[in-house]
Amino acid sequence: MSLHAKLLQRQAEGKPIRVALIGAGKFGSMYLAQVPRTPGVHLAGIADLSPDNARANLARVGWKPERTQAASLEEALKTGATHVGTDWQALVRHPAIDVVVECTGHPIAAVDHCLEAFANRKHVVNVTVEADAFCGPLLARKAAEAGVVYSLAFGDQPALICDLVDWARTCGFPVVAAGRGHKWLPHFSESTPETVWNNWGLTPEQAKRGGLNPKMFNSFLDGSKPSIESTAVANATGLTVPSDGLLYPPASIADIPYVTRPRSEGGVLERKGMVEVISSLETDGREIPYEIRMGVWVTVEAETEYIKNCFEEYKAHTDPSGRYFTLYKRWHLIGLEVGLSVASVALRGEATGVATCWNADVVATAKRDLQPGEILDGEGGYTVWGKLLPADASVRMGGVPLGLAHDVKVVRPVKKGQSLSWSDVAMDTTTHAYRIRRELEAQFAAPQLKAA
């Protein structure tokens, strides 16, 4: 039975999936825009640091005010309305809640939310992929131990890439490479919230009109978010990552199967079976026609002459050898698609992407020379950007994961372009996020690295 049919059945039975949302910002608002149009789902409660802002966003996406006037979660559950407040713990601890959608974008808080949800046997759809990037494999293990499902969020690019990889493998194709698109030039890694809009392609006036967050958008531009999302994909699919960061080869959609081949065959990959990000800009800054900037892709290989001939007969666009073929989605609709994850975890017990190994990590890397006493401002800020590295390389260097590089004091000089280690910073070791990260390293690092 399809997910939609299952949702209709739940609606007919009067047994909707009961959802709690933590964080009603832009991503959360996009999901909220779809909830009234989705059968068999009751968004029972929303927790946000600013309930007034949450209600404003609800009004912006078309919710009627009376739908959010439930004075308590109990009232919301009885009436079918939605309670809006600040108490996220009350939501995740209530026995009637089935699924928690973590949508804060704050990685340290997200770890707290996920762990509490698991402790109360709630499925989690984690939109805050920044948290997944530095401890996703252990979050997945803890969810499984609690008998619940932990999932990446469909609509965001990592889950869509995982879906393409699963399609390929289920059809019997070996995955040569998979990833997303991005607008990239090397100097973007130095971008700050002050320089982001010109490089992004918007005026400051347009950004202000749209209420766009410069730090959040800069996290995409400076390469942090592509590294974070590539990490989530590698850890969920078992694909490997480049040895010294993403390469961002420029390519049109038609050229993706050309560049996502091994170097020995004319492509850019160190080996088959890797994640990579395709740039929508030529190295001189010219925009590439028919690009994949907002999309996702997977490149597969025809292992036999017969399969290669099938590619040719059905006009599949391949590389010149006829062996490598790329399937793609040119767009992703972000929060508008999260309902698929909610339905999948609640009705099928299946994640739409979940970490199964620890292949990749994102290490905080200096945007400029940093001096002792300076405070790191995390993803998208002025001090560091996130570099994708193999997990074993990160462990060897004692790399500071980008998700923990928020409000952290630098204690030693760090040169521009240098990735930071634990000894370079004074880390708050009391948070759940820090402790679960170190637990991840202890449980998942290769034995030879643990002994080093």
Poorly predicted spans: none
CATH C-level name of the largest domain: Alpha Beta
Mean pLDDT rating:
95
**Which class best fits the helix and strand makeup?**
alpha/beta
Q: Please, what is the oligomeric state?
A: single chain
For the record, the count of structural domains works out to 3
* CATH fold-level name of the largest domain: Rossmann fold
Using the 3D structure, state the CATH architecture of the largest domain. Answer: 3-Layer(aba) Sandwich
Number of strands: 15
Gross morphology: globular
Strand arrangement, major sheet: 3-2-1-4-5-6
**Rg calculated over all Cα atoms:** 22 Å
- What distance lies between the first and last C-alpha atoms, to the nearest angstrom? 51 Å
Helix content: 25-40%
How many DSSP helices? Answer: 18
Largest sheet: 6 strands, parallel
CATH homologous superfamily caption of the largest domain: NAD(P)-binding Rossmann-like Domain
Question: Could you explain how this protein is built, in words?
Answer:
With 452 residues, the chain is α/β, with parallel strands linked by helices. It folds into three domains: 3-155, Rossmann fold (3-Layer(aba) Sandwich); 158-184 and 223-331, no CATH class; 360-443, Type Iii Antifreeze Protein Isoform Hplc 12 (Alpha-Beta Complex). It contains 18 helices and 15 strands. The protein is globular and about 65 Å long. The model has no long low-confidence stretch (mean pLDDT 95).
